[in-house]
Amino acid sequence: xxxxxxxxxxxxxxxxxxxxxxxxxxxxxxxxxxxxxxxxxxxxxxxxxxxxxxxxxxxxxxxxxxxxxxxxxxxxxxxxxxxxxxxxxxxxxxxxxxxxxxxxxxxxxxxxxxxxxxxxxxxxxxxxxxxxxxxxxxxxxxxxxxxxxxxxxxxxxxxxxxxxxxxxxxxxxxxxxxxxxxxxxxxxxxxxxxxxxxxxxxxxxxxxxxxxxxxxxxxxxxxxxxxxxxxxxxxxxxxxxxxxxxxxxxxxxxxxxxxxxxxxx
Length: 265
Ligand SMILES: C[S@@+](CC[C@H](N)C(=O)[O-])C[C@H]1O[C@@H](n2cnc3c(N)ncnc32)[C@H](O)[C@@H]1O
Known about the structure:
265 residues; alpha/beta; two-stranded antiparallel sheet; Rossmann fold; 7-stranded mixed β-sheet; 9 helices
């Protein structure tokens, strides 16, 4: 498949019934019990953010998790560094799930907080500083989730000081052009110097949540590097991680994590 005009086999983001995304099914399959690959991702993201703020300061700003879906761990990873976190999401069922988590999130997310708290002192201090149960803080900082599309971020002024996007740009379309546009829109939302973490499925053939099929664009770490490099400062790290249990999707080979800082325009 190329980046040219859509073929008949191509499934664009606007063609997909996102409101049919079932958050309970998705959580049951992926986030009820923490997977080794999520643990590995979360550890690296925690260290990346801790190193960034230790070096550059600037806590208390605004964070965004793009295409949050029913996953709270990117927001938990940003929690100590933010005065406000926006969860941008397109699917009404996922928005409803997120709204329901604000006044006290479900117990399965405690395993993810444990990982954030459990690093060496220099990496975990900001997380341990929020205590064993950061639910009150989560409710204050993570306000109403924002209904909307990743692609709308392209036309807006960069407004966020830190950002995450997990399993979104490649998992919402089969089009390489839309994948690249999605990554560009995410990076456009970030202010110069903002630290970011973005995770991707490697070589995904698409996935199902309950009875509903969803599209994916087959990408690899080279593509991730190529698409992110124009937006990132030198020193961005891109790593491939295996998922031995392969629960998140059928038909993929692993996960890719990119951690970096937004380059000045
Ligand atoms: C594979 S899920 C990933 C969810 C979550 N970030 C995670 O880490 O598990 C893809 C998410 O992107 C959302 N989505 C689809 N199209 C979108 C768009 N144009 N803008 C924002 N989110 C979108 C879906 O509703 C879904 O929640």
